[in-house]
Structures are given as C-alpha cells and as structure tokens.
Design a protein that fits this description.
The protein is α/β, with parallel strands linked by helices. The protein is 55% helix and 12% strand. The strands form two sheets. It has a five-stranded mixed beta sheet, sandwiched between helices. The protein has a two-stranded parallel sheet with strand order 1-2.
C-alpha cells in the first residue's frame, strides 16, 4: 500500500525530494529507489524530526513499537501523522506517540494499487483544516476519498469498502463456476464474468444501481428469474450477515491491539 501511495503521489506531480521512505529492510528500500527514485532511510527518527507529514504504513502488530520510537520527536512541531494501519485506533496511536498529536486514520482498500481505491478518513480534534486537506490530497492520489465524523464508522468502512473487493472477487469466482456448470469452458466463463463485472461497475459509477437493475430486468425474462431466485434465497440477508461479521471482527481487532499494552 505504501508503494501504491508513493506511485500515486508521483503520478500527481509530487516532487521525489519531498518523499522519504523509512524501513529496516534495506532490500525493500533499494526497490523503492529503483522504482521511484525517492529518498530512503533505515532510521525513523531523523527523517521524522524534519518532516511535516508522517505516513504510518506499517503492520498493525508493530504500530506500537514504531510509534513509541517516534514519541521522542518534537511534540511542539505541528506535525501530521496519517495511519493506514487497519484496526489501530487513534487514541492508541496518540498515546504511543506521547499524546496531543494531530492524527488522521485512513481505511484504503486494495484497488488503491491501481489508483482505483476508495478511502475513508477520520481526523482527531488536533488536526487543522489545512492538514485535513493535505491528508485528503495524499489519498486522492490513489482513488476517491470520503470523511467520516467518528472513528467507529471506520469499522463499517472496513466491512464495506475495505473487505468489499474480496466480496466482488468471490462473486466473479462463483459466476465463473456457474458458467462451467452450464457448459462453458473455464476460460470463456472467466472472461465473461470479469468483463461483466467491469462493465456493470462502470455503469453503476454513472447511474443509480436500482434503476440500472430495473432496466435490465424485463418482465418474465431471464434476468427476472435470476433475481427472483437470489431474493428467494435471501442474498440480502447473507450479505448483511457477512458485512456484520467483518464489522464485528474489525471492532475485535481494535480491542486486541489496544490491549497489547
């Protein structure tokens, strides 16, 4: 995700000299230099001390260690911290950083890798309006952004857009399998399932999904029979239960990470 953000920023005319990537993995840093020609460092403290914006793109399990390491940086500097780590709450990040930090939590999703992401952002009270605009401009580089008013909403975002791409991947997989059972070869069925998903998504970007479905669903036609079957078998309840399970797990993860220390 960090690489996709760097690529998106550079594609949107950010200066390479404005970006420094920090990692303990020298090989990873070398790949970033080769791909993007940005600055790199195996030391977190030095670059963060001079930075106005710090993007925390680390695994949730190591967030506490990284933040506590950065807690020694000047707390009086109006520095913005942006976290893209799933499940790690702002209150915990703030505590580990020493408190009174300007923090924006983001929940991007995997299509950000292709600059087609959907990202929700939440800002704590310390974040200034100009800092919100900066955070949004960074995430806009890899897709669309929306702001939420409370942090709990990020768990709902996780269930919808964060985990959501996997739901669509699964539907494509099932549609391909259905095509095979109806007599299509695997390759043909996959091509049709993929392109149908792509075309439908593009149409839904420009029109209401309910209206689009109504236009395709002719009375006593083939699509109507398929939709009636999905409704009879309660696809709506299955999807609601699936997103609720994702939401509950996101909440549990937040509790687990908060209770590490």
């Amino acid at each position: 995700m960090a690489s996709s953000l760097i690529g998106g920023l550079l594609a949107n005319n950010f200066d390479t000299n404005q970006i420094t990537a920090c990692d303990i993995d020298g090989d990873q840093l070398e790949r970033l230099v080769q791909d993007f020609a940005i600055n790199t460092s195996t030391d977190n403290i030095g670059p963060v001390t001079t930075a106005n914006i710090v993007l925390l793109a680390v695994k949730p399990q190591v967030m506490q260690t990284v933040c506590e390491q950065l807690a020694s940086t000047d707390n009086n500097k109006p520095r913005l911290f942006i976290s893209i780590a799933a499940g790690v709450r702002e209150t915990d990040i703030n505590r580990w950083l020493g408190g009174n930090r300007a923090i924006v939590r983001c929940m991007p999703n995997t299509p950000s890798l292709m600059q087609l992401g959907a990202t929700a952002l939440y800002a704590n009270p310390q974040v200034q309006e100009t800092q919100k605009q900066i955070a949004q401009s960074i995430l806009d580089a890899v897709g669309i952004t929306v702001w939420v008013d409370n942090e709990v909403a990020l768990d709902a975002v996780t269930a919808i857009s964060g985990s959501g791409p996997a739901y669509f991947f699964y539907f494509i997989e099932l549609l391909q399998q259905a095509g095979i059972k109806l007599g299509l070869d695997a390759e043909t069925s996959l091509i049709l399932a993929r392109q149908t998903a792509l075309g439908a998504a593009n149409m839904a970007m420009h029109d209401d999904a309910v209206d689009l479905r109504a236009r395709v669903t002719s009375k006593k036609g083939t699509t109507e029979q398929a939709i009636l079957s999905l409704q009879k078998n309660r696809l709506d309840s299955l999807l609601e239960a699936a997103t609720r399970a994702a939401f509950d797990r996101a909440t549990e993860l937040g509790d687990e990470l908060a209770n590490q220390n």
